[in-house]
């Protein structure tokens, strides 16, 4: 498999979690372009980056600029990037709101690291990925909005 390395940005306000995930994503062979503790910092780092991440893993509940605002801002300015929502929250309204903001996937923080690896790969390859706890919500969303 001679594919280019998938470039990832990790946006989460919990330092230990964010750094730990970046470490195992590197071990999986992904390139971490940057990490940020909120959407505002992520946008600033995007401005400074010469390369747009292939996949941005975005927490929903963050201070300063939450995941919904971050997803909207990223996709408006960098429509080529793919957003993977990353949250402990499996509430229907939040899953739907993230999909409406342009997320291509939604993975729960309780997922196995291998599942996160798979989600990033699927989304990078043009697909969609949803954790077991939110997949039914996503199916209903795409029935209503098939072009999304």
UniProtKB/TrEMBL annotation:
<dbReference type="Pfam" id="PF00072">
    <property type="entry name" value="Response_reg"/>
</dbReference>
<dbReference type="InterPro" id="IPR058245">
    <property type="entry name" value="NreC/VraR/RcsB-like_REC"/>
</dbReference>
<feature type="modified residue" description="4-aspartylphosphate">
    <location>
        <position position="59"/>
    </location>
</feature>
<feature type="domain" description="Response regulatory">
    <location>
        <begin position="7"/>
        <end position="124"/>
    </location>
</feature>
<dbReference type="InterPro" id="IPR001789">
    <property type="entry name" value="Sig_transdc_resp-reg_receiver"/>
</dbReference>
<keyword id="KW-0597">Phosphoprotein</keyword>
<protein>
    <submittedName>
        <fullName>Response regulator receiver domain-containing protein</fullName>
    </submittedName>
</protein>
<dbReference type="InterPro" id="IPR051015">
    <property type="entry name" value="EvgA-like"/>
</dbReference>
<dbReference type="GO" id="GO:0000160">
    <property type="term" value="P:phosphorelay signal transduction system"/>
</dbReference>
<dbReference type="InterPro" id="IPR011006">
    <property type="entry name" value="CheY-like_superfamily"/>
</dbReference>
């Amino acid at each position: 498999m001679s594919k280019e390395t998938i470039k990832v940005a990790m946006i989460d306000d919990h330092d230990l979690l964010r750094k730990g995930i970046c470490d195992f994503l590197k071990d999986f062979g992904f390139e971490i372009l940057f990490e940020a503790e909120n959407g505002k910092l992520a946008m600033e780092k995007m401005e400074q980056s010469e390369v747009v991440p292939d996949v941005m893993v975005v927490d929903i509940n963050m201070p300063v600029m939450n995941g919904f605002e971050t997803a909207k801002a990223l996709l408006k300015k960098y429509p080529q990037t793919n957003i993977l929502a990353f949250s402990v929250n499996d509430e229907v309204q939040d899953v739907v709101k993230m999909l409406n903001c342009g997320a291509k996937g939604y993975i729960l923080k309780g997922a196995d690291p291998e599942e996160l690896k798979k989600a990033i790969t699927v989304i990078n390859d043009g697909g969609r990925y949803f954790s077991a706890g939110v997949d039914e919500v996503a199916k209903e969303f795409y029935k209503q909005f098939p072009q999304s």
